[in-house]
Amino acid sequence: WEDSHVSSAKVTALAQTLREGAGAATDIVKAVYTGVLRRAADPGGLEVYRGVLLSGEMSEDALWAWLTKSDEYKELMGHASRHNHMLALISDLSLKADQCTGRPAPDPGYWCRRGEGFPKLVFEYVNALGFSLCSAPQAVQTYPSALPTVFDAIRKAEGAYEEHLQRFPTTEEVSKEAARVIGDGAGGEAALVERLLNSDERRALERESKEKDPIRGDHAARLRDLIRRFVPNSHPALQDASLPLDSMDLRNLQLLWNEHGPVIEGQKRSSIQTWDSQDGVVPIGMYVCNRPEYLKQVLSALRNVKHIEKSFLIVSMDQATDEMLTTVLSADFCPLRIIFHPEPKGLAWGIGGKLHSILAVKRHWRFLLQQIFTGTPALARYNREILLLEEDHRPTPDLMITLPALIRLKNDGERCEACWAVFLKWGCMREDQEDDVNKACRVKWFTNTGVSFNRTIFNQIEKSTFDEFRDGWDWSVYHLIQTQQLLPCQPSCVPHMVAPAVARISNIGTHGVTVKEEDAQSLEQLKFHTVGDDAVEKGYDGSKVYLAEYFGHSGATDENLFFGFEDGHLKPT
């Protein structure tokens, strides 16, 4: 006892040291909670983490790292926090109105002069720095030397997900993978691709795709029949093919048909070489998926359209089922071209969730545009307007009377400045109060139903960031309007569309990517009236269509900067 006895002075000193250590550990835990979780430490967390600090099991840095892995931190750094951060970047980095357009403008600060939208650089700048999740002072220090590297890493991360997982990546995935691409240097992109190809998600997609092999085999058989029916055996494409038809997979059959499939008239191979507009009638492009019940109704309605025999119908399909092919081939009321949206290498269409579907539809829309303007020999010299429909867009019989009249208004540069397209859903102030079948309006908003534009707009889309934007085709066009990429005259002009006061298309689709029968809110967008099927019988001829007085309203260039499906519009807090 005497040898092991500790004097009271030593006990007192030891107790003081422990108290000081406990006090320091308490302060550390409180500081880390405040720094990481932006709140005071709760009693339970304070007691636990003070204990592990005192025992030496964890350092201050380790505690900081541990809390950043918590669900609470991930939620904190999620949607709302990201919005606040990006708004702070716009404000703190002085991306204000006078610096957006090179001319002075009043508040509201982070706008780029009301009615002119945001430059592309503003979007990329804030998007890149938002992904990096750095503070505004850090962003100022890294710009401009590091910012191009961040842009490039983001594009690589997004592109890898879209190609190998067939979907848009989430914000968190882009942020994480872009940082790894930068950190891995020259081999960063290859390492990312390797990770995705070996991921559980990719393996699941491959399994699901393999399970659809019998269906794909059936589609391939239908496509072989189509090729044999319309492409002669003596055709060089068949003579020079490296594989016989029976050995080709679905994707190669699709590519072969797209390049060599003929224009069809009356279910026979046509001799048509060049198509041009008569009486203002325009070509129609339709992108369709496996919804034959809607397609039959739309083709039946097109058959009843006045002057439809003067049009040219291009139908792009992503599946070659017997019912869909039979339905499309029944469209014998005008020259017809059938094309197939080639399936991704190694995977089938129609697998994955909603994000896969949004990307697939966007790619299909983009593919259809490219095929119309650059892949259809009969339209090689055609530069004027086309009309884009979906298989659930049912037109009224006056479609090819009204559309040319609206296009004439759209192309009147004096009365319709910066008008770039027509849409055929209602487009005046109050749909429920309009019954004038001759009235049309010029509007700043963007609507995706029955859109018509020309080769000039297609060329603008081709050289824009349309493909890189993480949302559907319609929101990607909206993005081009906001970021001054749609028209060469932006920001000095504001893009407008022309539309009838009373719709010429009804949307009959109650199930699809964005509309569900069980979702009452999504069905509301389908509730609007049209001129009906008897306007032509009543004497309507389109000669009296007029552009109504401009009414005050907002559009894409007036609205908060939009960042895609996950972030949406940035809203001031």
User: Helix coverage percent of residues?
Assistant: 40-55%
Give the terminus-to-terminus CA distance: 69 Å
Q: Which residues sit in consecutive blocks of at least 5 with pLDDT less than 50?
A: 1-6, 96-114, 133-143
> How would a crystallographer describe the biggest sheet?
5 strands, mixed
Structural class: alpha/beta
Total of DSSP H or I helical runs spanning 4+ residues:
22
Percentage beta strand:
5-15%
Q: Compute the gyration radius: what is it?
A: 30 Å
Shape descriptor: globular
Rounded average pLDDT: 83
Describe the strand arrangement of the main beta sheet, using strand numbers.
5-4-3-6-10
Sum up the structure in keywords:
globular; 573 residues; alpha/beta; disordered N terminus
Task: Provide a short characterization of the protein structure.
This protein is α/β, with parallel strands linked by helices and 573 residues long. It is built from 22 helices and 13 strands.
Topology (elements, then pairings):
Blueprint: H1 8-37, H2 43-55, H3 60-67, H4 71-76, H5 79-92, H6 97-101, H7 120-132, H8 136-142, H9 147-164, H10 171-184, H11 188-197, H12 200-211, H13 213-230, H14 236-239, H15 250-260, E1 264-265, E2 268-269, E3 284-288, H16 292-303, E4 313-317, H17 322-329, E5 336-340, H18 354-374, E6 386-390, E7 393-395, H19 399-410, E8 419-422, E9 439-443, E10 451-453, H20 455-462, H21 473-482, E11 496-500, E12 505-507, H22 520-524, E13 546-547
Parallel strand pairs: 3-4, 3-6, 4-5, 8-11, 9-13
Antiparallel strand pairs: 1-2, 6-10, 7-12, 9-11
Helix pairs in contact: 1-2, 1-3, 5-7, 7-9, 9-10, 9-11, 10-11, 13-15, 16-17
